[in-house]
Specification:
Elements lengths: L1 H8 L9 H23 L6 H31 L1
Helix pairs in contact: 2-3
Length: 79
């Protein structure tokens, strides 16, 4: 949705990553590593998988909201 709005706006886009997005990337990589380790090595994660699933969901949501807020503020400045 946001990409479509951006394409229709004819505005330039210059963004740097938010700190929450960097945390999200690390959480996603950790989640992938746990899933692969569990599948290949029958690794007992001690409940880390469930925690990482919720962490990735939360950081993805917060990151998306952060970028939306940044984009809206940028549109207001450009207007």
């Amino acid at each position: 949705g946001a990409l479509l709005l951006y394409a229709m706006s004819n505005q330039s886009l210059s963004m740097t990553p938010l700190w929450i997005s960097k945390i999200n990337t690390v959480a996603q990589l950790a989640l992938a590593a746990i899933v692969l380790a569990r599948a290949a090595l029958f690794f007992d994660d001690g409940g880390a998988l469930e925690i990482l699933i919720y962490l990735v969901a939360a950081t993805t949501f917060v990151s998306g909201i952060g970028y939306l807020v940044r984009w809206i503020r940028g549109m207001a400045v450009d207007a």
